[in-house]
Every structure is written in structure tokens, then in C-alpha cells.
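# nightly structure sweep
# worker-07 picked up a monomer target from the shared queue
# config: single-sequence mode, recycle default, output format = C-alpha cells
# input follows
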Amino acid sequence: MNSRSLIVFAIPALVIIGILFGSVFVVQQTQQTLVLEFGKLLRVIKAPGLYFKIPFLQNVRNYDNRILDFDLPSIAATLGDQKRLLVDTFARYRIVDPALFYRTVMNEDGAEQRLRILNQSIALSVLGKVKLTDVLSPKRVEISKTIRDQMNIAAKAFGIEVVDLQLRRTDLPAENSEAIFNRMISERNQEAQEFRSQGDEIAQEIKSVADKERTIILAEATKQSEIIRGQGDAYVTEKAGKIYGKDPQFYDFYRSLNAYKTSLNDKTTTFILSPQESFFKYLNR
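# output follows
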């Protein structure tokens, strides 16, 4: 067999092999496949395996059936309390209807472009009804869920299911950060001043009540002490009267000695009195 004969047999063999390879395709476990004929959808294949198609007339388009990640661009939103905020979101989606997906967005680039538009409009609408404190609190989870649910409803028109959406990062615009922080500081200072005023008012009430109770207690104690002192003085006077009444002369002598002790205690004291005065009657004896 010469070379010309080999060429004659080789060309048909190559054509046959090419036709066989062109008519067979494999659907992987992670794929869902569309069979197209001149752009017209013939069938959808979601089960993995080996399949056949008409070569040259039909072609296949594969889509991933796994969950896909997508970083959405930052959004400058005006919140319900008129505060500006930059929001970064992160979405996860999957293709649930490849035929509808092909007819509406064609490929993943087209799908992500539609998701950007949906995210911007829906996120702005939802964030426009909440306050800054809500975005910075545990309510952030509910806000993310609301955006995801609304995006999922809209994305069904493209054969897409939005599985998850998260508000990944929230920042104040640079031009508004300082003003907002100053306003927050002023509000906190005002609240602190109100708390101090309330505390001072309560302290004054407590002090006033305590002073009143103190005055009542001191007055009662003074009253009781005066009563006890009066009873003691009366008792002493009664006893002294009984004792001194037994010997008036001794009582007079005792009082004179106390008077001498008190009057003559200071060495600089000078008396200008007659020696015959009754004051010196016991000294003259």
C-alpha cells in the first residue's frame, strides 16, 4: 500500500472521528447544559453524563449549577434620618432556570450586570427607611435579609436565585464623618448634662429630706436633754435644800468660802471695800 492509498483511507477516517467527537459531549456534576441549534433552545440537561448531539448543526452552552459569589459595588445611600452612608454588599446566587437565564441575560457577565442594577435600586429603597443606629446594630441582619428577599423576587425573572446578601462594610463619607461625629458628641454631652441635672435634683431632694430629719432629731434630742437636765437640777436643788436647811449657818459659811475662792483666785484682783463689810465677816473672825 503506497502513501497515496494511505491518504485516501486516512481522510475519511479523520472525518468520521471528527464527526464522532463532534456528536458527543459530557455534562459534568457541577454543570447544567443547554443544547442549541442555530441559537434556538432544543433541550436542557441537568443530570451529569454522556450525551449526543448533531455535529456542526447543534452546539452546547454550559452553566455552573453551584452557588456563585459576587462582590457588589459600593452604594452611596441616604438613610431615613438623612445621614449619608457608603455601603458595600456581598451576594451569593445560583442559576436555577438555565433556559430563562440564557434568554434574558445570556451569561454570568450579563447576570451580574442585572444584579448590580437591582442591588442599587433595592438597597437604596430599603436603606432610605432605616436609621444609622439600625445599620450599626443587630437590626443590620434584618436589613440585609430584606434586601436579599426583594432582590430574589426580582432576579427570578432572569432564572436566578439570590441565596444570600450581606452588608459587608458601612462607612460614612469622608466629607460627612467629622460633622456627624461632632453632632453625636454634642448629643451625648447634652444627654450627659441632662442626667447630671436630674442627679443634682435628686441629690438636693435627698439632702433636703435628710436636713429636715436631722433638724427634727436634734430638736427632739435637745428637748429630751433639757427635760432630763431640768429634772436633774430639780433633784439637786431639792436635795441641797434639804441638806442646807438642816444648818443654815454652815450653808452661809460654805457659800462665803466659794465666793472667796472665786473672787480672790486672780492675784491682780483689787478690792476697795471696808473691812467691816459683811463679805469679810468670816475672814475677820
